[in-house]
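Example record used in the benchmark description.
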Amino acid sequence: MTGQDAVKSADEFHKRLGITGVILTKMDGDARGGGALSIRHVTGQPLKFVGVGEKFDALEPFHPDRAANRILGMGDILSFIEKAGEASIRSRPWRCSAS
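Model output (structure tokens):
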């Protein structure tokens, strides 16, 4: 679906159902930033989640400031740090010791 089709679809959903937020999939490229802005403007509703991959587990909370930094070429250091921390926690063996 192109950006304009996504805007039309979101607008129609909002008119018929009164949505309170938007999930935008395939947000792994910076080109989707314009579609995200347009959807927000047309529906008046915030983006809640974005899909950054092909599977269900690739949904992430939407952080507008981070998206803006990516679009402007300033990178997204906070998301990188969060992912590194999550990977570290998952790979660390947990030990419980009785005192």
